[in-house]
Design brief:
Keywords: ATP-binding, DNA-binding, Nucleotide-binding, Transcription, Transcription regulation. InterPro entries: AAA+_ATPase, AAA_lid_NorR, Homeodomain-like_sf, HTH_Fis, P-loop_NTPase, Sigma_54_int, Sigma_54_int_dom_ATP-bd_2, Sigma_54_int_dom_CS. This is Sigma 54-interacting transcriptional regulator. It comes from Geoalkalibacter halelectricus. By secondary structure, the protein is α/β, with parallel strands linked by helices. It folds into four domains: 136 residues, no CATH class; 143 residues, P-loop containing nucleotide triphosphate hydrolases (Rossmann fold, 3-Layer(aba) Sandwich); 66 residues, Helicase, Ruva Protein, domain 3 (Orthogonal Bundle), CATH 1.10.8.60; 47 residues, Arc Repressor Mutant, subunit A. Helices cover 39% and strands 16% of the residues. It has a five-stranded parallel beta sheet. It has a three-stranded antiparallel beta sheet with strand order 3-5-4, with no helix packed on it. A hairpin with a 4-residue loop joins strand 1 and strand 2. The structure holds adenosine-5'-triphosphate. Adenosine-5'-triphosphate (ATP) binds next to helix 6 and helix 14.
């Protein structure tokens, strides 16, 4: 690992663009000394005649902009300036360029003791100073090692406004930190979830409609909230609406609102969900279940953004971002005409696909531990953790109800278990399947989701709420599974 206190004498010249106030200045500078402690401490003097323009070698986006980061040091010879580069690309590009230049300059003499040495060897043969400053990961490692100290040193200079901005930045940029309004964290460490986090971060700042696909309980609503909370609409309402949870006849009134007296029972004028979400985001869950009539109405709304309450002759313009989600096979619905192409294209401006929990590898255990900790915080429970066997069972299980099923199983186990560690039986997880004869294996393999749902329904006397709870899924999800598997209620 390169030492952090390395200093190198140099005569590199660079053109620096910086600003001390609203005005931006450009200056040709001579870098007299490079201090490899993360910041470049440069002795600056103009030598326009010998300009070695670093900047022209870099793309415009990477040009060194030191706005606001420039600190002038008084009392030193000439004008000495600390350069702090907060932008990683700029720093790395600059770093590699300078490293290459220095290597060329110092292949015969050590910059510390002046003796013959070779910088490319990584260490001076005489004074043993580390010269491996060109390590590709130097800056990243150094930044990580010194981040806490850098923040610490700046804390006394922060005021409430700075703190507010920093917290806002952290909330927006780092998904796995605490979610302010719901006190929920979005947990995920597997590559697919990291990709999802990155997509959320990218799309949040835009105003694109988003379509979220994923099985029930995979975190579609959590994703929609995460997008909203990182978007410029974050301080405006987030309205979640499940299109499958409300009888068809009431859906239109719920979404678009109604005028007093427009139908029997409309004793008061009521705003619909779109109006309630004005300025913010509306999350339309189970969008695949919308009737053709409502699909047409939603499409019209997407085109002109005008909401017309039932019974009203006047429309209101509404500014709302739409995030839709479904757990059905929307492409199949498109093929068989169950969902309109034109509406799909409107909603699908940006698509995020959430992987089922069974495909998230080590995240099953990471999530289990997180959920355990969260539930532990809500009261006093006997179990203090999971047994090794329980963790293995969690990893092995397929989790058809995804994260919701995991939450329900852990919550139930924590209430019921009497010992210190949760065992597979407490979680109602089957022990590993014994080595089975081929016929048994065949039976195991063909044990489909449909059979699991049927068994749960029978066990719970076809009481939907109870069956959904036992499967760890929502009622609408159970209904849509029953529809999909053609199971009569
Ligand atoms: N990655 C995650 N980290 C932490 N909690 C999660 C995660 N994914 C889901 N959850 C939690 O699991 C539960 C179900 O998530 P959510 O309601 O977002 O799923 P969904 O896909 O919208 O389900 P449905 O389709 O059944 O409505 C919620 O309590 C949510 O907070």
């Amino acid at each position: 690992m390169p030492r952090l206190d390395v200093r190198i004498k140099t005569n590199l010249r660079a053109r620096a663009v910086y600003a001390t106030g609203p005005e931006q200045r450009e200056e040709v500078v001579t870098i007299r000394e490079l201090s490899l402690n993360g910041a470049l401490v440069d002795q600056l003097r103009g030598h326009p005649d010998q300009t070695l323009t670093l900047l022209t070698e870099l793309s415009p986006a990477r040009q060194i902009r030191l706005q606001g980061d420039l600190v002038r040091r008084s009392g030193t010879k000439g004008s000495a300036v600390h350069f702090y580069y907060s932008d990683r690309n700029t720093t790395s590009a600059l770093w590699h360029y300078i490293s290459a230049q220095l290597q060329q300059q110092s292949t015969s003499h050590c910059p510390y003791c002046g003796n013959e040495g070779n910088a490319a060897e990584g260490q001076c043969g005489q004074c043993r100073q580390s010269l491996a400053f060109q390590d590709a990961d130097y800056l990243d490692v150094h930044l990580l090692e010194t981040l806490a100290a850098r923040i610490q040193s700046r804390i006394p200079k922060l005021n409430a406004d700075h703190c507010h901005k920093i917290i806002k930045y952290i909330d927006r940029e780092l998904l796995n930190l605490q979610d302010r309004s719901t006190d929920q964290e979005f947990v995920g460490t597997c590559p697919t979830m990291l990709r999802v986090f990155s997509m959320i971060n990218k799309v949040a700042g835009t105003d694109l409609n988003v379509l979220i696909l994923g099985e029930s309980g995979t975190g579609k609503e959590l994703t929609a909230r995460a997008i909203h909370q990182r978007s410029p609409r974050m301080d405006k309402p987030f309205v979640a609406f499940n299109c499958a949870a409300i009888p068809e006849g009431l859906l239109e009134a719920e979404l678009f609102g109604y005028q007093r007296g427009s139908f029997t029972g409309a004793v008061d004028t009521k705003k619909g969900k779109f109006e309630l979400a004005d300025g913010g985001t509306i999350f339309l869950d189970e969008i695949g279940d919308l009737s053709p009539h409502l699909q047409a109405k939603l499409l019209r709304f997407l085109e002109d953004r005008i909401v017309e309450r039932i019974g009203s002759k006047r429309g209101h313009r509404v500014d709302v971002r739409i995030i839709a989600a479904t757990n059905c096979d929307i492409h199949q619905r498109l093929e068989n005409g169950g969902f309109r192409d034109d509406l799909f294209f409107r909603l699908n401006a940006f698509c995020i696909k959430l992987p089922p929990l069974r495909e998230r590898g080590g995240d099953k255990v990471v999530l289990a531990r997180y959920i355990f900790r969260k539930i532990s915080e809500t009261g006093h429970f006997t179990p203090q953790g999971f047994s090794e066997e329980a963790l293995k069972a969690i990893s092995r299980h397929d989790w058809p109800g995804n994260v919701r099923e995991l939450i329900n199983k852990i919550r139930r186990a924590m209430v019921m278990a009497g010992s210190d560690l949760l065992e597979p039986a407490d979680l109602e997880l089957e022990p590993p399947a014994p080595t089975v004869a081929p016929t048994d294996l065949h039976r195991q393999v063909s044990k489909s989701k449909k059979e699991i749902v049927l068994a749960a329904l029978e066990e719970n006397n076809y009481v939907i709420a109870r069956t959904a709870r036992s499967l760890g899924i929502s009622r609408p999800s159970l209904y849509s599974m029953m529809k999909k598997f053609k199971i009569e209620h």
